[in-house]
Amino acid sequence: MRGIMRLRPNTTLVVGGILTAILIATALLSLVWTPELPTRVRVAMRLKAPLENGFLGTDHFGRDVTSLLMAGAWNSLAIAWPAVLLGAAIGTAIGCAAAAWKGIADEIAMRASDVVFAFPAVLSAIMIGALVGSGPLAAVLAIAVFNVPVFARVTRGVALQIWTLDYISAARALGKHPIKITLQDVLPNIAGALIVQVTIQLALAILTEAGLSYLGLGVRPPNPSWGRMLSDSQTYLSQAPWLAIAPGVAIALSVLGLNLLGDGLRDALDPTLRGRGVPA
Amino acid sequence: MSKRILAAALLFSASLVPAYAAKTSLVVGMPIEPPGLDPTVAAPVAIREVTWVNLYEGLVRLDRTGKVQPLLAKSWEVAPDGLTYTFKLQDGVKFHDGSTFDSADVKFAFDRARDPKSTNAQKQIFAPIASIETPDPSTVVIKLKETSGNFLYYLSWGDAVIVAPETAENNKANPVGTGPFKFKSWTRGDRVELVRNPDYWQKDKTKLETVTFRFINDAQAQVAALRAGDVDAFPNLGAPELFAEFQKDARFKAVAGNTEGETVAGLNSAKKPFDDPRVRKALMHAVDRKALVDGAYSGFGRPIGSFFSPNHPAFVDLTSVVPYDPEKAKALLAEAGASNLSITIKTPQMAYASRSAELLSAMLAEVGVDLKIIPTEFPAKWIEEVFKNKDYDVTIVSHTEPLDIDIFARDTYYFNYKNDKFKAAISDAAKTTDEKARFAKYAEAQKILAEDVPALFLFQLPKLGVWNAKVKGLWENSPIPSNDVTEVTWDE
């Protein structure tokens, strides 16, 4: 936790922070206000260009694109956040255990991570969709599953370093239980690295959620989703290009913002890591 | 050196420019590849779209307006009791393998199709047959057990084409028929090639030398293939929103016709509250069909008020029987004690279905009905849950078989709809041989459905045909699943 106190702002951090703040603010605002009801269908107003009707025009059902984008931001985050947090929780627990007990436990945890890594998120989403029915739950679980090994590895890597420090050796010599050491000494020291990783994984999760919704595996219609806006718009590309551009830009900016924020946080939290990649 | 190469290249390319003569090849694009090429043993529409009247011929055929016309049968007589059909066959007809076509082939083909072991998809065609006699090579006498008003019409279908005993077994992969085109090759996943049959019995009927069917599933790839000239015609373009561009383009002819596909949102009549006709009617009143077609199909489908194709001569437009009237919908729901209804719609992934479901959900919300969309993968999951187990409130799908209004008379069909008056009308129609009387019965049946609303009747799937403006002779509507290229010619 001391890492956060040492936070020093830099350009990357500021730009990333602003973009991410806009994303979150938009998502929250959409809960209380959108220019139009995002699900309101007005067929007579279909495919109106930006500014002709609403700020960003209307889609093939005459829905307001601005409102869809705003509500889509919330749906994106509503899947990405729980998915990453779930993946981070399980992955961190596995990583900490692997670092604490090493040996066979470490080996099993890391080889299992390799196996899970081998499945792309889309594939596990289809599998999970077949088990629990495709929908938001399947999307959350699928994204969580592919986050588990990421966090397991990052945690194990940084935790192993901490375990070699003298004060940990001292604690062990005093007979402190490994779980207690992990909770009281290791976790606070690796929190910075984990926060950075959460930010970066959030960006990936938003991208994956868009991909899953594009394939019809994520948010269910009529709830708006950036991915489905993209897949709906592709056959209208020559008639109504704004339908594809709007969610495309939204996804790109959100992912860019979170990535910059992650990079900026890493630099700010630990100057010694500057220029080096976070192990993933 | 390089100049010489350039000169050579120019010379070479000049020799490739053809003399200005009308083209004699045609490339037709189709969205789905057929699983085989024998329409008498399997149901898929794609089989008929390659083979019907191009490769195989029946005793009779449908013309582009949906009327029965003679083909391998020159003429026929129906006995006054309607139970004996005597067909006179064309002379000089040969199969593609050189063997002669005669009455024995007809008997073989029909006996094969109605055999209990046959996998023919439309056995109702042959069900009324009592016996088939062949007094001489050019005469076939078919005796029926009971009168069948649609017997001749059914014989025009791909399921009743004539195949030869020597070759029937191999028709799936190596089709042999009597049609104007012979099978040349099939590159799986890509194309089927047909070539002109020089021994065809109607001399000079066709102008084309080769016909290629290419299979392109993705709508954008279909458009690209048309633009690039890789495909000359797409009789059924995949995406209506891309169709509009071709309407503005003078190089192409873009025609929106009708298919046999009635798109309906089936209501489970065995389940509360759909057992109450007032509720069903209320839901129909809540649907603005015109807006639905605009949003779901870029305005190309024709709104329908009952379950009958506008291609069929007995069609009656009944869209005004239960018109769009949200106030009346609310009143009817209140009267039936079904206000604040919360129901689900099991929706296949096809664009027309999921878009329609989204629009239905929005329209029903206006009258206080909460319609939740449940994506249901087609065909496997939909067939299992909706079609077989009838576990649904509302569902949506297009019924593409021609003349299939009788599905509402089947007790075990997924609508769970039971109406004795309707059943009587349908069975009367099937037995009536007089055309006018039969059509009147069909009109009556259509009206019963329109008033009783066993399903929300939405729109007829359009046939969005796009082809090179110089191609002439393709069909604008499809009264039967087919791509009849026998009358196609190129301008110039």
Verbal overview:
The complex is a heterodimer of chains A (280) and B (492). Chain A is 71% helix and 0% strand. With 280 residues, chain A is mainly alpha-helical. Chain A has a domain at 80-271: MetI-like (MetI-like fold, Orthogonal Bundle). The radius of gyration of chain A is 22 Å and the shape is elongated. Among the domains of chain B are: 58-169, Dipeptide-binding Protein, domain 1, CATH 3.90.76; 260-461, Dipeptide-binding Protein, Domain 3 (Dipeptide-binding Protein, domain 3), CATH 3.10.105. The relative contact order of chain B is 0.16. The longest helix of chain B is centred in the last third of the chain and has 18 residues, at 435-452. The chains are: A mainly alpha (280), B alpha+beta (492). Chain A binds chain B through residues 39-41, 43-44, 46, 60-62, 134, 216, 220-222, 234-236, 238-239, and chain B through 219-220, 239, 241-242, 244-245, 288, 291-292, 294-295, 298, 349, 354-355, 357-359, 361-363, 373, 375.
